[in-house]
Amino acid sequence: MSPSRTLFTTRRRTALVALTTAALAASLTACGEGTDSAGGDSTVDYVSQWNPQDPEAQVINKAIAAFEKANPGIKVKATYAGRNNDAKILNQIKARNAPDIIEGGTMRLKQFKLEPLDDLYGMKIPGETKTVGEVIPDGLKTLNTAEGKAYAAPYEYVVGGLWYQEKQLASRDLKPPAQWPEFTAQAARFKADGQPLVQQDGSVAGYNFFWFVNLVARYGGPDAMAKAATDKTGETWKGEVYQKAADQVRALTSAGALNKGYEGTTFPAAQNAWAQGKGGYALNFSWMPKETDKVRAADAKIRYTPFPNVGGPGDDLVEADTTSWVVPQAAKHKDAAKKFLAHLYGKATMQGFSDTAKTLTPRTDVTPPALLADVTALLAKNPKVMPRLGNLERTAPADYITKVIDPVYGDFFKSVGKQTTPDFLDKLAKASKEFWATQR
Amino acid sequence: MQRSRWTTLLFVGPAVLWLAVFFGAPVVATLWVSLTDEQGVDEDSKFIGLANYTRLLKDPYFIDTFWVMLKILFIGGAAVFAISFLFMTILREMRFKRFARAVMFAPYIVIPVALAILWGVLLNPQTGLLNSFLDLVGAGALKRVWLGPDWIFTSVVIGLIWLSTGFYTTLLCAGVDRIPAHYYEAAELEGASRWHQFVRVTIPMTWDVIGTAAVLWVIGAINTFGFIFAFSGAGATPDKRTWTPAIYLYLETFDPLNGSLSYGYGCAIAVMLMLLVAVSVALIRRAFRREAVQF
After folding, report:
1. Which of A118, A180, A212, A374 is the most exposed place for a label (fewest CB within 10 A)?
2. Which residues form the ABC transmembrane type-1 domain (chain B) (predicted)?
């Protein structure tokens, strides 16, 4: 045996021992972290959809500090990964190192295999007498429930409808429209001043779609949209409900009620124009007033009114969505995660979301942001809630919207009335049938 | 000899290892995933052979994106090279040509996403500079909704041409700069027109550079992605008329708005694009293969 070979062998052994030791140490560390007794030592891995500078992150950080103080055995590691947080954690899940809490819109979170949270709903909020389930209104629970089980815990919610500036209506002696004809009739008053009834960023397909969604729901009820989308023949799209809704969209877009060139306006140009007092309404969700904070005049008073009724079975439906927390099935610290979530439902944290992030929270005993006072007043009446996009996102595959709705409806909406309703619905039916034919 | 082999290994080894780990392994992994029904979030996926590829060849959405890509490749390519040759010819004899080249090259060093956002602002139908300018010069009849359905694809292609022309002009100019001036002087003395000088002197003597430029354009055109995505504005999926295979790949794999996740299928698209690039490059290189001109 040559000296060099001996040396090499020795070095290799040393390396092997070092590697084995490191692996053992790593696995022991992992075991330590894996302890999932809510009272034991755990580190809850929380992947947020907010960025570190977002106001929500400040509220969450404050809640973490209070939670860790009250529960010395549990640490919370928050990662503010931004809006695509779900895509960023895929490799983490593949490596069998799933986070314990993921945060996001319910439509995006459905892609994960999730832990039912019914037991979280039954947990007492620390320092209070109520359970988590008792502070979440039924409507919001429904949005986070599938097959009778709660899969997500909502902590912020958004509501769709028409937004306007009080001055814009008052100066024209107009009232917020309760019925669709009242709404469209107001276009003439705005047109007389060279302003559009509606400011619309045509580049955002989802915003364009809101019109059709709400009209279909008004004419056909909350399930009408999902019913047509899941019909594999596509024929449902040609029904009366959809014709009526499409006719109204066509009339609106062809009457010059929208900002000129809306079909080629890139977000946020139209939204900013609305915020600066050019035009009447913007159809959007309750995140919009906050988004325009820096653009609109200081004295502009933002008001909300629900989507106008048409005298159909879906009148008064309110389109809503939530930002929620979920616990993946593969999470290693489920109990600790749920304990932390129960803590987050405490009044102080929820008031923080309302005050700092200016968002609506599920707790009715929290003072809502003044900017959203109209929405809060509406919700106090406990209206019927419809999941965003008429429940389309939960009932059809995720790419149905991208491949069928966005291109076909987008062309119709942006045709400025050039495309007829029957032509649109034929194309929609055909595209829907083709889509389902490509599904395995 | 023994020492020499170890020395070679010492120098080549790290590079080979680097290539294997950072280039070879991802390609192999992509190939493997393309043969599975991987969804991204499922921890287990199963081998499905060539099913993703057979589905892809029948997928009407993919086929549509393929046509979009071909239009960008050929129509955009023809325009980029025609304009670049024109500029190259003008710049060859121009004073301050270095400055002019630098100005033309500038768009290429700016992030395409930033440029695309700028284009969105310029082309706004009501407040955009282009329509405002047309109004100002009394050409209001030419105003269009540039980012609307009728014009979006054309606007994207024009944007890509504008973005690329400076780069290709610079590249071709570098090739022309190598040509000794006496070739042009001789051609002029013999009465050759500008066109003949271009065809008989410039083209043959920059043939290798043109070949390289063509390869770069093809790779860029096949993989067109970021510029179109940013062109659509914030929070928006690009108009379907502008979907390239690369955009379709992204939407299938990571759809940022709707959460569609089909890793296996997305990898199959990636492999197809890789093959397409490889075949196209091989064909171009073959088409441009000539004996090198010595000068």
Report:
1. A118
2. 62-284
On whether both A83 and A196 belong to a single domain, the answer is no
Chain B residues closer than 8 Å to A401 by CB = 257-258
Asked whether residue B293 carries a pLDDT value surpassing 50, the answer given is: yes
Q: Say which CATH number the domain at A132 has.
A: 3.40.190.10
Residues A184 and A290 in one domain: yes
| Position A355 in a domain | yes
Look at residue B43 in the predicted model and tell me its pLDDT: 62
Q: Do B40 and A206 touch (CB under 8 A)?
A: no
Q: Number of folded domains in chain A? A: 2
Please state the rounded mean pLDDT for residues B140-154. 93
**Higher-pLDDT residue of A67, B194:** A67
Q: Which domain holds residue A338?
A: 7-157+323-378
Classify residue B3: in a domain, yes or no. Answer: no
Q: What is the mean pLDDT of chain A?
A: 88
Of A196-205, A298-307, A390-399, least confident by mean pLDDT is A390-399
- Inform me whether the C-beta atom of residue A96 falls under 8 Å from chain B C-beta atoms: yes
Domain membership of residue A133 (yes or no) is: yes
Which residues of chain A neighbour B148 with C-beta distances below 8 Å? 202, 261, 263-264, 414
Q: What is the ipTM of this complex?
A: 0.82
Summarised one tens digit per residue, pLDDT across range A100-117 is 999 987 666 666 788 999
Where residue A123 falls among pLDDT bands split at 50, 70, 90? Answer: very high
Q: Please report the pLDDT score of residue A27 as a whole number.
A: 36
Give Rg (Cα) of chain A: 26
Residue B38 is assigned to a structural domain of this protein: no
Say if A190 is an interface residue toward chain B (CB within 8 Å): no
What number is the average pLDDT over the span B276-280? 95
Mutation for B interface: A94, A203, A395, most B CBs within 10 A: A203
- Chain A residues in contact with B41 by the CB 8 A cut-off are 90, 93, 111-113
The pLDDT of residue B205: 92
Q: Indicate whether A95 and A214 sit together in one domain.
A: no
Residue A20 has pLDDT above 50, yes or no: no
Shared domain for A170 and A294, answered yes or no, is yes
Q: Sign (positive/negative) of CA torsion A20, A23, A29, A33?
A: negative
Shortest CA gap A408–chain B (Å): 9
Q: How many CB pairs under 8 A join A and B?
A: 123
Choose among A87, A268, A410: nearest Cβ to B254: A87
SS (H, E, C) chain A: CCHHHHHHHHHHHHHHHHHHHHHHHHHHHHHHHHCCCCCCCEEEEEEECCCCCCHHHHHHHHHHHHHHHHCCCEEEEEEECCCCHHHHCHHHHHCCCCCCEEEEEHHHHCCCCECCCHHHHCCECCCCCCEHHHHCCHHHHHHCEECCEECCEEEEEEEEEEEEEHHHHHCCCCCCCCEHHHHHHCHHHHHHCCCCCECCCCCCHHHHHHHHHHHHHHHHCCCHHHHHHCCCCCHHHHCHHHHHHHHHHHHHHHCCCECCCHHHCCCCHHHHHHHCCCCCEEEEECCHHHHCCCCCCCCCCEEEECCCECCCCCCCCEEEEEEEEECECCCCCHHHHHHHHHHHCCHHHHHHHHHHCCCECCCCCCCCCHHHHHHHHHHHCCCCEEEHHHHHHHHCCCHHHHHHHHHHHHHHHCCCCCCCHHHHHHHHHHHHHHHHHHCC
**Would you say residue A438 lies in a domain?**
no
Which of B41, B124, B146 is nearest residue A111 as measured by Cβ atoms? B41
